[in-house]
Amino acid sequence: MNPMPELIPMLKQLRLSGILDSLEARNRQAIEEKLAYTDFLAMLVQDEVARRSQRKFAMRVRRANFRNHKTLEEFDFSFNPNINRALIMDLATCRFLEEGANLLVVGPCGTGKSHIAQAIGHCAVRMGYDVLFTTQTKMLGQLHAARATNAYERRLNALAKVDLLIIDDFGLKPLRTPQDEDIHDLIGERYERRSTIITSNLDLNEWGDAFPNKLLGSATIDRIRHGAYSLLLDGKSFRAARPLPKYPKNEVAENVKKGKN
């Protein structure tokens, strides 16, 4: 007697329909290996747990809104050998999230700030944390739009509660009022409760220059830097321009002449 017609609706009712994906294969394996009923059941349950974990992981990655797929496995530490690899690998354990500490990643353009920030975010996602990657400009734009529709508090609370918030390109554009107040309120809500990664091209002692209200900026930066880990990047840019092809002088002149014609 085939139990499948009765089994399928019951599994769906129990929200275990994913078991159907591996049921047939596991049933053949159990027959071939003469497994006990409990071993057969254990395999089905393990498959279901793995499926749900993968589904949750994929959902967290989508919610994180990473700019692109950047991991530590893909990062070329040999390109700039002075990068503090030991600190980065320690941060990848995500212990700083348990501390509620921030991470400040500072350095010139193209030295890998966004890559490292997103890679650590990926590590956090793998460990079950909720992560959100955004830029200063995008985040403040969303808060501004939310204020216009009376949804500011809801949006601020959502940003405040995410386990790990990554703000890329802080200070790339000077803040205006009330943007400086929005940053201050957000940092205040997350202070010593949730971890924030902030990347910036500005030196840490220049961050205050991004705020039009210096007193507000000083209070905000004081909270950001308190107990924070600092990762200073320096060296060559990963985005260095490729060298132009070299042509013989007469060929260059010919190409210029053709371009004019």
Automatic annotation (TrEMBL):
The keyword Nucleotide-binding applies. Residues 99-234 form the AAA+ ATPase domain. InterPro entries: AAA+_ATPase, DNAC/IstB-like, IstB, IstB_ATP-bd, P-loop_NTPase. Keywords: ATP-binding, Nucleotide-binding. GO terms for biological process: DNA replication. It holds the Pfam family IstB_IS21. The keyword Transport does not apply. Belongs to the IS21/IS1162 putative ATP-binding protein family. NCBIfam families: IS21_help_AAA (NF038214). This is IstB domain protein ATP-binding protein. It comes from Desulfurivibrio alkaliphilus (strain DSM 19089 / UNIQEM U267 / AHT2).
